[in-house]
Amino acid sequence: MYSLTLPxxxxxxxxxxxxxxxxxxxxxxxxxGIYLYAFPIQRLTEHLGLATSPITWFLWSFHLLSL
Length: 67
Known about the structure:
This protein has 67 residues and is mostly helical. It has helices spanning 2-14, 19-22, 31-48, 54-65. α3 packs across α4 (54-65). The termini are far apart.
């Protein structure tokens, strides 16, 4: 059941018109910066003991990128 509903939900949210998502990239595209800086930030936060899961790595990478 999960493998049938996940693609549907992903496509539903991808095409959902939302003011938050439309204004997200108003000042620039974050995807390349997250891709470029994610690995060093993930290793640093793991070394310092600040993050141990993929979600916390993403949040640290996004937060430090947006400074």
